[in-house]
Amino acid sequence: MLALAIVALGATSASGATEVVALQDGPPVIVHKLVPSPGSYTVSILVWGPSTTAASVSVKVGAAKHYVVSASRSTPATLTAQVVLAGSSLTVRARSSGARPRLKVKLTKLVSSSAPAAGLQPVGVPGSWNLMFDDEFYVQGLDSSWSTGWFGSGITAGIGGASEPECYDPSHIVEGNHELDIKFTKQTETCDGGSHRYTSGIVTTNGQFSFTYGYVEFRAWLPTTSNGQVADWPDLWTAGQNWPTDGEIDVVEGLGGTACGHWHGPTNNGAGFGAGGGTGCPAGTYTGGWHTFGADWEPGIVTWYYDGKDIGCVATSGSQCGGDSSTITGSPMYLILSLGSNPSYTITAPTSLRVSYVRVWQH
């Protein structure tokens, strides 16, 4: 059994991993969970609120994951997350207004790691980076960083509403075998008040994880047509709460069979600006295998990297990025993985968007 150290009011005490310690008013609860060796773990956390009525509790797991849950003294909330650990302990912090919440933390080893989280860096991108978010999809089922549906639960309409040929169904999100798969099928579903011929899926970290500036990277296997082009409309992207003012970074999206990177912001009411002052769709083959797609979002500029190669940028001042310019906003963004379709293009079904990890770093 792993040891669990509870740090409270400047004192440290050791207990068994299953013990719940009553905590008094004061600074945030801090739990240090000892780690026997680096690697990938599932962390399960029970969170009790500070009072008999439900209250919001903010929980931070390591440096990479941040949640807000509702819990009371009698009804705990349950969090499950995947973490890659490099050091000797995992730190979990919790805070609530008024009295302090209580925590119980359990770690389960998944996979040994020869390249622990502290050493993970963006592919081909220089600089000093600190890992803020890392999901490698090691276990069955989504952890609490993610939710399904487009601004709703259950079966929801596509991002384009009634004009999109598919509905988003949680059953088309499959996690396991060290990857997350979004399935696209010719299956009739009802959403947005009508019947749609196709079904797919979407996951987002909206309300669970967001960031302002940093490097986001996806390792993905894009869906493919019979002639080797990108099939349908896969999109690995970020967005703010108020479109287009808060911005949107399409790290990679399949458009007309090609892999493209675009910025959408308040300039020209959300018009898309391609990386490098052009279409944003570089030459090259990005299907038929695993590839990395990344975007470095800094004040006033976004730069895209495909397989570690700089494919161009978009900046508030366009002179440094090929002449085009668009206002690069600085509002928080959350992560989105989706697989849609466009009636203007050939639709291929069944297909699948496969993602082996999602990571976000900051300086």
Structural commentary:
Strands 10, 14, 15, 20, 25, 26, 27 and 29 form an eight-stranded antiparallel beta sheet that branches. The chain folds into two domains: 111 residues, Sandwich (Jelly Rolls); 233 residues, Sandwich (Jelly Rolls), CATH 2.60.120.200. The radius of gyration is 21 Å and the shape is globular. The N terminus is likely disordered. Helices cover 0% and strands 48% of the residues. It has 363 residues and is mostly beta strands.
Spell out the blueprint of helices and strands:
Elements: E1 4-8, E2 11-15, E3 29-34, E4 39-48, E5 55-61, E6 65-71, E7 77-85, E8 89-95, E9 102-112, E10 130-135, E11 147-148, E12 156-157, E13 166-168, E14 173-176, E15 179-184, E16 189-191, E17 194-196, E18 198-200, E19 202-204, E20 214-221, E21 233-239, E22 248-255, E23 258-264, E24 272-274, E25 291-298, E26 301-306, E27 309-315, E28 334-340, E29 351-362
Parallel strand pairs: 13-18
Antiparallel strand pairs: 1-2, 1-3, 3-8, 4-7, 4-9, 5-6, 5-8, 10-29, 11-19, 12-13, 14-15, 15-29, 16-17, 19-28, 20-25, 20-29, 21-22, 21-28, 22-23, 23-24, 25-26, 26-27
